[in-house]
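Structure ticket #2291
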Amino acid sequence: MPLRRRSKIIVTFLGLPLLIVLLGALFIWHSEAKDSDALISAPLVITPERIEQGKALAIASDCVACHSTTGSKPFAGGLPMPLPMGNIYSTNITPDKEHGIGNYSLQEFQRAVQYGIRRDGGNLYPAMPYTAYAKLTPDDIQSLYAYFMQGVPAVAQENRKPDFPWPLTLRFPLKVWNQLFLSKGVYQNKPEQSAEWNRGAYLVQGAAHCGTCHTPRGLAMQEKAYDETSKHYLAGAALGGWQAYNITSDPHSGIGTWTKAEIVQYLHTGNVPNKAQAAGGMAEAVTHSFSKMSDADLQAMATYLVTVPAYQDQQTVARSSFGQPTMDYQDVRFAAQGGKAAPTGAELYLNHCASCHGKTGVGTPDGYYPSMVHNSVLGAKDAHNLIQVMLNGAEVENGKDHYFMPAFAGELNDEELATLANYVTVTFGHGAGTVSAHDVKKLRPAH
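Resolution: structure written out below.
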């Protein structure tokens, strides 16, 4: 082959990927330039009313849960968030000018909240739910800005860098991710629906970002849907060692048997007797967010949620197959002595669970101590949430009640916890005790 022709082939071979990269960069630059055209341009007058409106929206958005750590000052950041390559840490979003967002203009704040772009032009990881906050109205963005700038005390706490090294810390690929998966534009009311329904949809899809946990994700860790027009929306997802359950209107897999009053009660208190009790991230959401929201907003969210199209998954089983509370105290004691199946499990249950959940597993009538019978956690085929609760306990504080379950991670070993998990699922749940000591070990918190 002549040298000139060979050179042309080499140049073409090397130049084509370079051309694709350049065209991609040009497309991204053009798109971000268009984003700049959509930024808020009206001057902002900060008033006490505006700050209070922003505070209410920050509560609905549950900002404090991710941007705070136990014992730290609110919004100072530092909470670890696991990714496949290691932890990233939430940032300081107080108005501190050195470590926080005190130097952000309104437009820079909007770009961060709705487009995932920092003040210096770097991209945020989509662990920050800007894909949901993209639906917030300009008025709400202004209120959030007013609250964080003048309603939150500045904290001089330095941000933590990710645990993983370069080049995994490069942020440029996130620009491509945004172009592929960030759906821009504020929520648009549906005229055929009521004002309450639209308010609920706006909160669920936007500020409350329910889909961030409850919607399954694709290969690029993107949410598969952002509203009820897709069957995947709120259909349940695995997240951080927990299972965020299906909350569509399906009567078996989701919350189709729940009334709107029960949904409101759960959001407000974290507890609906004989149906569900909040734990893990949901308990935090109830404690810091939903329990502090107005009844009108919670009612609006329930009005919307009961209309989300049903999706039947394979993670739950029919309640008709659950165990029944047929064991009395003598039966359990006899089982613990080895007279019946799973004696070790019965003994563990008597020693660690029966004092609260009852000798027959029915808890208390008010649900303060939840029933093990027909419990949603024991109805899931995936035992992750059951193991997590036994390892780490559960705690919800809603301003009126304080629900608390102790953690057994330091008291019971992996084999004992697996035995206990299998016992309660066989006795009170779906009847399939499949938890192994290895399953427990994988979820046990590192010391």
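Closing remark: Strands lie at 80-83, 86-89, 237-239, 242-244, 271-272, 276-277, 394-397, 402-405.
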